[in-house]
Write a structure and sequence with these properties.
It contains eight helices and 13 strands. The protein has 280 residues and is an alpha+beta fold. It folds into two domains: 112 residues; 145 residues, Gcn5-related N-acetyltransferase (GNAT) (Aminopeptidase), CATH 3.40.630. Strands 1, 2, 3, 4, 5, 6, 7, 8, 9, 10, 11, 12 and 13 form a 13-stranded mixed β-sheet that branches. It is elongated and about 60 Å long. The mean pLDDT is 93.
């Protein structure tokens, strides 16, 4: 594998592949800022064959696998690529809208035994204009306190590791957490003993925002903390004059789906199929 040293080098690889193979099938839709960040950290690697441009992104606890290819290509090159990766598990995200996007390659990887399904996420959206703000109450149970300026990265990371599947969603690291805290987009809840009970992130981009990494500690669940944090995000959306809120939810996490249904979030047709890439 070759470490990609700059966004320009990455773009040149993709351009050359397109020139050789035409419009490719791909699952790589890294936003420019994220692409630049992982390259600057030395965490994006590539390997190329006749039919595949293969990319591996080091997410610390696991690798994320991206590809560029064309229809009906042999998956032997992917098997050979994965065979050399022994230090961490490899996962792959394929994002598409129902009826559109690359569903061929994931199906082929699964049928050829290269990958297996891991999780399916659906995206949901709520237009801010549809929120009844007269009913939005940020009420925490007695003894709980919310903070917008806490950035105890160790405690937050520990809670996320307890409550979330790190292999499904890359979690913010210390620098990003500090930035979110400074922007007022990181909300934490502590109990009377000073223990971190819950956390949520509002990731704002333009006039839209993504609600992410909502986690409640096991011993503090069923007390309304998640709902209160969601309402706090709604107030921020109003204050910052956002137009839409989005989130991704695991289809099998029925309690989370029920929470978002209660707040009138609607499926918007976007899906994310997560694959576990088998080692050989």
């Amino acid at each position: 594998m070759i470490k990609i040293k700059s966004p320009e080098e990455y773009n040149a690889l993709v351009k050359a592949f397109r020139a050789r193979k035409g419009k490719p099938l791909t699952n790589c839709f890294l936003m420019p800022d994220e692409l630049a960040a992982v390259i600057n950290e030395g965490k994006l690697f590539s390997e190329e064959s006749e039919d595949w441009l293969l990319l591996l992104c080091d997410r610390e606890d696991y690798y994320c696998f991206y590809y560029y290819t064309s229809e009906n290509t042999d998956t032997a090159d992917v098997k050979a690529f994965l065979k050399n990766i022994k230090d961490k598990e490899v996962f792959s995200d394929v994002v598409f809208r129902q009826g559109r996007g690359d569903t061929l390659t994931p199906s082929r990887l699964i049928s050829d035994g290269v990958a297996e399904k891991y999780k399916t996420y659906q995206r949901m959206q709520l237009n801010v204009k549809d929120i009844d703000f007269s009913a939005v109450k940020v009420n925490f149970p007695k003894g709980y306190i919310m903070s917008t300026d806490c950035c105890d990265c160790e405690k937050i990371s520990a809670l996320w590791k307890e409550a979330l599947d790190e292999k499904s969603t890359p979690l913010p690291k210390e620098e990003e957490l500090k930035k979110l805290s400074a922007e007022g987009h990181l909300f934490t809840v502590f109990d009377g003993a000073g223990d971190l009970a819950a956390v949520i992130v509002l990731s704002v981009s333009g006039r839209q925002a993504l609600i992410q990494h909502l986690a409640v500690s096991q011993k503090h669940r069923r007390k309304g903390l998640a709902a209160a944090l969601m309402n706090r995000c709604f107030l921020s959306a109003k204050e910052e004059e956002l137009v839409a809120l989005r989130l991704w939810v695991d289809r099998e996490n029925l309690s989370a789906v029920a929470l978002y249904d209660r707040f009138d979030f609607q499926k918007d047709g976007m899906l994310c199929e997560q694959l576990y890439m088998k080692g050989f």
